[in-house]
Amino acid sequence: MQIEIKIDSACTEPKIIIQTAAITEEVNTLMQRLSEHTPPLLTGVKDDKTEIISQKDLFRIYAAGGKVFAVTGKGEYLLRLRLYEAAERLNPSHFVRISNSEIINLNKVKNFDLSFSGTIYVELTNGTTTYVSRRYVSKIKKILGM
Q: What predicted TM-score, i.e. pTM, was given to this entire model?
């Protein structure tokens, strides 16, 4: 791949042009990366205080009892979002949905145990354990390159 930069003082906004003979997987990946933007902030409530939650500190986000919670090293926060809304704000290269009610941070996974029949056991670095539901097993295996 060749990269060319042209400096033009009349240019008011950067413009990217991809010149190619065909749309390839490499071109699609490049377009996706270029179109990604910084995800919106995620805030949670803990001890009647609203705090900004850094995505790098998140272990998991889960739904229980009609509420959505985010777990970080600092504790558990109540989110004022639905699970799918929280998922939209997360970096898709670091977070993956493992069930209808849970999203995990792949950077906080200690290990995956595939010895269970039909499901995957997940241990996070904070000691939390959870399971990938059968519906999401193939997606996780693809992410793991299996």
A: 0.71
The architecture (CATH level 2) of 54-143 comes to: Beta Barrel (2.40)
Name every residue whose Cβ is closer than 8 Å to that of residue 73 and which is 6 or more positions away in sequence. 57, 59, 126
Break the chain into its structural domains and give their ranges: 54-143
Closest CA to 45 of 87, 79, 85, 90: 79
Question: 19-29, pLDDT tens digit by residue?
Answer: 889 988 888 88
Residue 46 pLDDT level (bands cut at 50, 70, 90): very high
Give the chain's end-to-end CA distance (angstroms, integer).
Answer: 29
**CA–CA separation, 133 vs 139, rounded Å?**
10
